[in-house]
Amino acid sequence: DEKAILTYEGWFSIHATYKINFEKWQAWDTERQIKALAEFKAFIAKLEAGHQAETSSYALYNVAGGKGDILIWFLQPTLEEVTAKEIELRKLAIGAVLEPTASFVSVIEVSNYMKTDINHPKVQARLYPHIPRLKYMCFYPMSKRRNLEDNWYMTDRAERGRMMRSHGQIGKKYEETIKEFTTGACGLDDWEWGITLMSDDAVQFKKIVNEMRFDEVSARFGLFGPFTVGTLLDEERLQALFA
Ligand code: 76R
């Protein structure tokens, strides 16, 4: 048996976080603000058109706390397209007040631990997701430990399979409350995976992350980067954010 687990890749992904420079924004005259906001909304409408056509997807959230103000999750078929979308945003008039605070480049990943049927509609929906418009989003990068005692990459495949099964069983308990997306970032960014969670109840993020910390694979091997959490930015909230 191959040691590395087979993975299937879907759309390319960038999680991009920006702080709004409100000092700059508030110094703009009303006309300039209105034009910039309208252009930004047109950009979002274009992302929305791709999302509706199911040829790409995206999500737009208002970040809680000091890590940023806006988080845009771009999903596009190729690395060049996802790169171009992010640059297009920064070239807009509104880009002059958006200060990038974090970004994470990855690709949607479905692994074969559970003997995935690549043609199953559910697997296709994971690879090319139609991101739901749930009220809250939580994003964090993670890796798996590599040291002499606990090294995920030197652990038997069967052993890894056993741990992933247990992991999946915990995940299943949250089926009704949380939508989870795994993106792989080996060779693409500074962590091995990105975890994106969405829910209408932000407390569920705390519940699932806490419960998984007690499960063997996260307890022994999980290494976690910074967490970003936010609220869905619909048109009304977007207007209020820049008011
Ligand atoms: O059942 C299946 O088909 C999928 C089983 C499954 C896999 C293979 C699964 C289910 N995950 C898998 C892989 Mn997951 N997941 C995380 C985190 O905070 C933490 O402790 C970990 C972050 C969460 C919250 C989460 C949620 N998962 C992975 C991998 C790749 C592992 C590898 O290849 O080595 C990572 C890094 C990872 C991390 N996972 C689920 C969930 C949830 C909610 C489920 C159930 C989803 C469902 O069945 O629909």
Automatic annotation (TrEMBL):
InterPro entries: ChdC/CLD (IPR010644), Dimeric_a/b-barrel (IPR011008)
Record pathway: Porphyrin-containing compound metabolism
Cofactor: Fe-coproporphyrin III
Keywords noted in UniProt: Heme, Iron, Metal-binding, Oxidoreductase, Peroxidase
Matches recorded under SUPFAM superfamilies: Dimeric alpha+beta barrel
tRNA-binding is among the record's keywords: no
Record-listed E.C. numbers: 1.3.98.5
GO molecular function (one): heme binding
Keyword Cell inner membrane: no
Membrane-spanning intervals of the chain: none
Domain of life: Bacteria
Chemical reaction(s) catalysed: Fe-coproporphyrin III + 2 H2O2 + 2 H(+) = heme b + 2 CO2 + 4 H2O
Pfam families (alphabetical): Chlor_dismutase (PF06778)
Matches recorded under NCBIfam families: PRK12276.1
Name of the protein in its database record: Coproheme decarboxylase
Organism: Veillonella criceti
